[in-house]
Task: inverse folding
């Protein structure tokens, strides 16, 4: 379970995350939605202790991330699939992660198999396509068999088979009782994956509701989302 | 199960040896040392009729120390890349997910790089002295205890400057930025200040890590400019001063590393 209490992050005059109080429950897929700049990624970084909150707290099962002794065994996170050293081989990247948390190296080969990267284990990470990099990032999440998992836009770059694969994977991870938080901009995908939705707009909590009640009264999740976030879009283009 | 600290060191060790830049830096260091020592040896091998045989002798341990003036930057690059390449690729966030205690990450990186610096320092000393000896013909003098003493000093010196490099790397995050500052502090700035001919500038130059470190090595930049008489410290004082620079830079880097968002 992830607990956010009055979580706030300001960069100078801009407030990226604004007094967010929220609980992300285990046993279900929680979709994390919101326009660009809504504060989703910043929230995830604060949960992981990468960014320091201006005020408020983020805890995992009652403890801040930085106090976890072997954090990969408790929390797995995929923030940016391309954030790997491009010259390091796929398998070695995971071996280095495993060593840092005293995870047996045999587990690396297990997760490579699970995400379908066994065949490219010797390739350098920089040579992977975005979709394969996402799989590598997901392998990193699974590595420590953690109870809590965060995925920031994991579907980007995956091929249609990959999209179906990750949908099933996320559903099965939640079914095992884990806490699964997934951000995405793909509404139709979210509608098929998430049980529960958290929607941010300009750093504020706009909705925290089961998918079913969120969509109720609308033709689709997409329509419901647009109604809710209409006033919160910061970066809007124009249609000629 | 190893302690989290040992685990962090093990992870950093794996990371260090699984990128090509580490190998290129080490090959580069050896090549630079060879490029410096071989011509020096051949030069010494040419008899000079104006000098006595004794005056022409090449004490090969001095070849190694002089060659280190340039060679050190290959190891400095190796050291700072352990930090800056992670910022460049974004993988510092993965590192901090694996070990969120930033001080521990910094110490693990430092220890791993120290091992490399100490071992390669001794290796480079023997390489430079050996190549100098092999090429100097009748004029090469390879005194084992002198070479061993210099090898020890080079190891210690490299150990100190790679710590400076890591401090700069966590403070500045950029490979180019950290490398330029290291080059300025350890090489260019002392020389420019000494060349200025102004007393104040010269006095300042005495306290820069480049001046102090090379004084410890025995090829003092101040000596090259004929200014060693003005130095307010000797060989060990030089080591103390450059070490103080490294400690201060590491502490400042640690402060920045801890405070800033990753």
Result:
């Amino acid at each position: 379970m992830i607990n956010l209490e009055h979580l706030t992050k300001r960069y100078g005059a801009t407030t990226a995350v604004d007094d967010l109080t929220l609980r992300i429950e285990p046993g279900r897929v929680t979709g994390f939605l919101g326009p660009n700049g809504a504060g989703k990624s910043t929230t995830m970084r604060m949960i992981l202790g990468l960014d320091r909150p201006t005020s408020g707290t983020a805890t995992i099962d009652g403890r801040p991330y930085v106090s976890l002794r072997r954090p990969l065994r408790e929390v797995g996170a995929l923030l940016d699939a391309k954030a790997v050293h491009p010259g390091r081989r796929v398998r070695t990247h995971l071996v280095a992660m495993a060593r840092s948390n005293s995870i047996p190296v045999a587990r690396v080969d297990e997760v490579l198999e699970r995400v379908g990267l066994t065949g490219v284990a010797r390739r350098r990470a920089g040579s992977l396509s975005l979709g394969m990099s996402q799989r590598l990032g997901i392998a990193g999440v699974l590595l420590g068999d953690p109870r809590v998992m965060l995925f920031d836009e994991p579907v980007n770059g995956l091929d249609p088979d990959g999209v179906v694969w990750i949908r099933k994977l996320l559903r099965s991870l939640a079914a095992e009782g884990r806490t699964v938080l997934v951000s995405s901009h793909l509404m139709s995908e979210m509608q098929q994956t998430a049980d529960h939705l958290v929607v941010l707009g300009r750093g504020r909590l706009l909705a925290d509701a089961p998918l079913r009640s969120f969509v109720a009264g609308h033709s689709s999740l997409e329509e419901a989302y647009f109604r809710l976030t209409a006033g919160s879009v910061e970066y809007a283009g124009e249609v000629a | 199960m190893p302690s989290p600290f040992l685990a962090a060191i093990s992870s950093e060790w794996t990371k260090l040896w699984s990128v090509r830049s580490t190998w290129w830096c080490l090959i580069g260091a050896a090549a630079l040392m060879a490029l410096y020592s071989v011509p020096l040896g051949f030069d010494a091998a040419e008899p000079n009729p104006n000098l006595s045989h004794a005056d022409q002798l090449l004490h090969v341990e001095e070849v190694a120390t002089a060659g280190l003036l340039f060679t050190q930057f290959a190891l400095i690059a190796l050291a700072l890349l352990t930090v800056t390449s992670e910022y460049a690729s974004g993988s510092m966030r993965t590192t901090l997910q694996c070990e969120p205690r930033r001080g521990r990450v910094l110490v693990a990186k430092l220890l791993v790089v120290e091992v490399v610096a100490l071992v390669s320092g001794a290796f480079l000393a023997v390489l430079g002295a050996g190549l100098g000896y092999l090429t100097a013909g009748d004029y090469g003098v390879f005194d084992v205890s002198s070479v061993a003493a210099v090898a020890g000093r080079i190891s210690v010196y490299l150990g100190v400057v790679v710590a400076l490099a890591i401090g700069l790397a966590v403070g500045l995050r950029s490979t180019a930025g950290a490398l330029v500052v290291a080059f300025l502090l350890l090489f260019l700035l002392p020389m420019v200040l000494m060349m200025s001919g102004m007393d104040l500038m010269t006095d300042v130059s005495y306290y820069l890590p480049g001046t102090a470190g090379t004084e410890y090595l025995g090829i003092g930049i101040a000596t090259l400019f004929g200014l060693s008489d003005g130095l307010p410290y000797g060989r060990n004082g030089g080591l103390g001063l450059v070490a103080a620079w490294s400690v201060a830079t590491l502490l400042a880097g640690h402060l920045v590393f801890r405070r800033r968002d990753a």
